[in-house]
Amino acid sequence: MNTVIVLEALVREARLLRAKLRVYDARIRELEEKYGMSSDEFLTRFEKGELGDEEDYFIWWSYLRAKAVTLERLKELEKETQRLR
Q1: pLDDT band, very low/low/confident/very high, at 84 (cuts 50, 70, 90)
Q2: How many other CB atoms are there within 10 angstroms of residue 58's CB atom?
Q3: pTM of the shown model
Q4: Distance from C-alpha of 72 to C-alpha of 79, rounded to nearest angstrom
Q5: Which residues of 13-50 are buried (b: 16+ CB within 10 A; e: fewer)?
Q6: What is the pLDDT of residues 1-56, one digit of tens each?
Q7: Which of 21, 33, 65, 76 has the most beta carbons within 10 angstroms of its beta carbon?
Q8: Domain spans, the chain
Q9: What 8-state DSSP symbol labels residue 2?
Q10: Residues 51, 45: contact at Cβ < 8 Å?
Q11: Within 10 A of 53 (CB to CB), how many other CB atoms are there?
Q12: Rounded CA gap, 60 and 75, in Å?
């Protein structure tokens, strides 16, 4: 397998993941501003059931979860990229 091709693919994938993270961060900031609380406070209150069932809360939680999964994937890609260099 050609290492250069694999490295290029990993770099492209990492670039796409960073773009997704920028989108997630923008949406998360909008929700933080709309509801006047940080995501940490939101998560604590949401998980305790203090916020109700508003659709925005589930969307917010989804963005936070997607961000966490994307960050983990990006970390794995960067580790693999370093290993191949």
Answers
A1: confident
A2: 11
A3: 0.89
A4: 11
A5: ebeebeeeeeebeebbeebbeebebebeebeeebeeee
A6: 688 899 999 999 999 999 999 999 999 999 999 999 999 999 999 999 999 999 99
A7: 21
A8: 3-84
A9: -
A10: yes
A11: 7
A12: 23
In whole angstroms, give the CA distance from residue 46 to residue 41: 8
Considering just the CA atoms, what is the radius of gyration of the chain in Å? 17
CB atoms within 10 A of CB 59: 13
Tokens 């900031």 found at = 29
Is residue 20 within 8 Å of 68, Cβ to Cβ?
A: no
Q: Which residue has the tokens 């969307």?
A: 59
Q: Which amino acid is at 19?
A: A
Query: 6-16 pLDDT, tens per residue?
Result: 999 999 999 99
Name the one residue in this structure whose structure tokens are 């917010």.
60
Please, where are the H alpha helices in the chain?
A: 3-35, 39-47, 55-84
